[in-house]
Write a structure and sequence with these properties.
The chain has 58 residues and is mainly alpha-helical. It has 3 helices and no strands.
């Protein structure tokens, strides 16, 4: 479980942009950049996904 009280995550619109880059872009370099930004911010794609799921429940 993510403890967002101690961790400062990027703004939600930026995170959604990175997800879009990773999923929707036809350019492999853009896809990789979105993925690497998410991993750099959350440590893994699974944690990024968990964070987004928690945000959508608020």
């Amino acid at each position: 479980m993510l403890d967002s009280t101690n961790v400062q995550y990027p703004p939600l619109p930026l995170i959604k942009t990175w997800v879009w880059m990773m999923i929707e872009s036809d350019n492999p370099e853009i896809r990789e950049k979105g993925k690497s930004n998410l991993i750099a911010s959350f440590g893994s794609l699974a944690k990024a996904n968990e964070y987004l799921a928690n945000q959508s429940n608020k």
